[in-house]
Amino acid sequence: MSENPYQTYDARILEVKDLTSREKLFTLRFLDPEVEAKFNFKPGQFVIVDIRGFGEFPISICSSPTRRGYLQLCIRKVGRMTKFVHKMKEGDVVGIRGPYGNGFPMEKMEGSNLILVAGGLGMAPLRSVLWYAIDTGKYENVWLLYGTKAYEDILFRDEIIHLLKHGEAMNCSVKLAYEVESPSCIYLEQGFSDRVCKGVVTDLFRGEEFDVNNTYALICGPPVMYKFVIRELLDRKLSPGRIYMTLERRMRCGVGKCGHCVVGTSVSMKYICQDGPVFTYWDALSTRGLI
Amino acid sequence: MRYIKLPSENFERFFKSLEAWGTLYAPVKKGGIYSFQEVHDPAEVARDYNRTMLPPKKFFFRPKEAILRLKNGRWEEEVEAEPMVLFGLHSCDIHGLKILDKVYLDEPADPYYKSRREKTLIIGISCMPDEYCFCKSLGTHFAMDGFDLFLHELPDGWLVRIGSVRGHEIAWENGELFEEVTDEDLANFKEFEEKRAKAFQKEVPQEGLADMLDLAYNSPVWKKYAEICLACGNCNMVCPTCRCYEVCDSWMDAYSSVRERRYDSCFMENHGLVAGGHNFRPTRLDRFRHRYYCKSYFDPTAGYNCVGCGRCDEFCPAKIEHVKVLEEVRGSLK
Ligand SMILES: Cc1cc2nc3c(=O)[nH]c(=O)nc-3n(C[C@H](O)[C@H](O)[C@H](O)COP(=O)(O)OP(=O)(O)OC[C@H]3O[C@@H](n4cnc5c(N)ncnc54)[C@H](O)[C@@H]3O)c2cc1C
Ligand code: SF4
Ligand code: SF4
Ligand code: FES
């Protein structure tokens, strides 16, 4: 009975890194080389992390499938289980099952421009897309529009600043919006006045032009963000079918059994865990309660 | 389909013979309500029951069950399934199981549900609707499959439909208990079905139901009922197609822990709660409406998520009637 979908596989924590005061980056590797070899995933998919005897919770994979041999999860401390995980150290073992969900259609988007719009923790799944796009080089231009609260909240700060400086060489341009002013932000803004500003993520769209027939937008952020970002994109006539977003719901099983992530009405019901978490705006238009 | 006849005088022997196939469960009257219980004596069986409180889903998807046990740092799987015979399922409940099958047997299959389902014989029995039943309007009043044997009441016995290979085997092994079906039996069967069809007092008109409900998303009727609803979740517990579950780990001692799941209800406030305290269905109105939309979802391959068994009406302490809510919501569009 090895095909029990609720069984998890041992993974060792190779490294724990503080990203901010609330988020840590965990680098993991499966103990069993066979499991490791079989574990393939797509940007936008998630895993369920199992802290034996405490419980399970879903987390997006924030590393890219182009970089094999490890798996990275960016975990925000919000409650019982995530607090426990934050106490874990290098060498500790957790359980992992997955990958789950549909992920972003990376192949379909090849040759196009990608606009990644991230708000807060939404940077985590989009980082997987970002590195995938950079590593494969199969995309025309990649824009990352990233909105955070404050300088201290910028996830993967070193990487983001590196891309601010050297992104052009990789066809990648980063824009950053922050809400709380601080000397560090002002310093950044002085260095990259055209790409860093005080405001919210939608402010980063100002002056931005793109070829709507050759562009896809990929959005991830807090629930309130979607409406505003989508409006910006629709204003520029981007087709709803080119707008992808990754959504969150309470999840228990991850495999379409427990019913927690079900949304929609009598006409269209969807499981966020299986049909998503990546949806197009067309899906949102035909499924009530999706966003 | 193969049809045979079980004469009344052979019922007891037939019933006893089922014990050879596994632990036998059948509807039994306890106080004012019926429930599926282990039985040994055919006299205990309430053959003309209307509905049990908990549907047969309780045998496959348990109200509370351990799914994994942590021993020495590893999860051990525990799939114990004993052979069972569920005797006396009504057609709506058989349809209810088919809807659960679609969820739990779909890849990746739930191993607990699957192993129990595979080891269980389903014996259906015909019934007469009461004031709560509306299965006919949903097309779930007659089971074409999903059973091993189905017993239809005749004046002097039962017309038996054989629905599976195991059903054939039971009939084979008890060959002496059965007879060929006569023209008179067929006439009686037809008469019973016609009488039954006329006895339904409730129906859900299906024309455009799903779209009508969707269009009536902002209907004040949802609000009216959400205010009466006690959010007790009874309707979820008793529904043969509700199957949300919550998971919890608990420690047995310092070395072993158990991962359990138990029935959950979309009426509970934390059903749609996620990290950071954001709730996707914050009000009782949101939750009430969600249940109706989930039950009225029409899957082209499996039909509605409601089989019209009437349990939610009978066991709702606020006396909310499923069909009435749907009718009023739909009516509010005009
Ligand atoms: C597809 C998906 C991807 C996610 N990706 C990430 C990620 O990359 N990084 C990250 O930090 N977080 C992510 N989350 C959120 C993460 O699952 C929750 O933060 C985590 O479950 C909270 O667990 P907890 O025990 O610490 O919190 P709890 O103590 O359980 O409670 C804190 C809050 O979290 C809610 N919660 C509990 N279980 C879940 C759940 N399964 N999903 C959502 N909320 C829940 C509770 O209702 C409560 O409001 C993701 C969620 C989903 C559904
Ligand atoms: S049983 Fe009735 S009162 Fe209880 S939650 Fe369901 S509709 Fe509301
Ligand atoms: S919604 Fe009510 S009538 Fe329909 S299957 Fe569930 S309990 Fe039965
Ligand atoms: S998480 Fe259980 S059904 Fe989606």
Please provide the ordered H/E string of secondary-structure elements of chain B.
Answer: EHEEEEEHHEHEEHHHHHEEHEEHH
Output the radius of gyration of chain B: 22 Å
Regions with little confidence, pLDDT below 50 for 5+ residues of chain A: none
Order of helices and strands of chain A: EEHEEEHEEHEHEHEEHEEEHEH
Largest sheet of chain B: 7 strands, mixed
What form of chain B results from the Cα inertia axes?
A: globular
- Sheet with most strands: strand arrangement of chain B: 1-9-8-7-6-2-3
User: Could you tell me the radius of gyration of chain A in angstroms?
Assistant: 19 Å
Biggest sheet details of chain A: 7 strands, mixed
Hetero groups bound? flavin-adenine dinucleotide, iron/sulfur cluster, FE2/S2 (inorganic) cluster
**Helical residue percent of chain B?**
25-40%
Number of helices of chain A: 8
Mean pLDDT of chain A: 94
Topology of this protein?
The complex is a heterodimer of chains A (291) and B (334).
Chain A: E1 9-18, E2 23-30, H1 33-38, E3 46-51, E4 55-60, E5 71-76, H2 80-86, E6 93-100, E7 113-119, H3 123-136, E8 142-148, H4 157-166, E9 172-178, H5 183-191, E10 196-198, E11 215-220, H6 223-235, E12 243-246, E13 262-264, E14 269-271, H7 272-275, E15 278-280, H8 281-286
Parallel strand pairs in A: 7-8, 7-11, 8-9, 9-10, 11-12
Antiparallel strand pairs in A: 1-2, 1-6, 2-5, 3-4, 3-6, 12-15, 13-14
Chain B: E1 2-7, H1 11-17, E2 23-30, E3 33-38, E4 64-71, E5 74-77, E6 84-89, H2 91-104, H3 111-118, E7 120-125, H4 135-138, E8 149-154, E9 157-162, H5 165-173, H6 183-199, H7 209-215, H8 220-228, H9 234-238, E10 245-251, E11 256-263, H10 284-295, E12 298-299, E13 303-304, H11 311-314, H12 322-331
Parallel strand pairs in B: 2-6, 6-7, 7-8
Antiparallel strand pairs in B: 1-9, 2-3, 4-5, 4-11, 8-9, 10-11, 12-13
Helix pairs in contact in B: 8-10
Flavin-adenine dinucleotide sits between chains A (46, 57-60, 74-76, 78-82, 121, 124, 248-251, 277) and B (270, 273-275, 277).
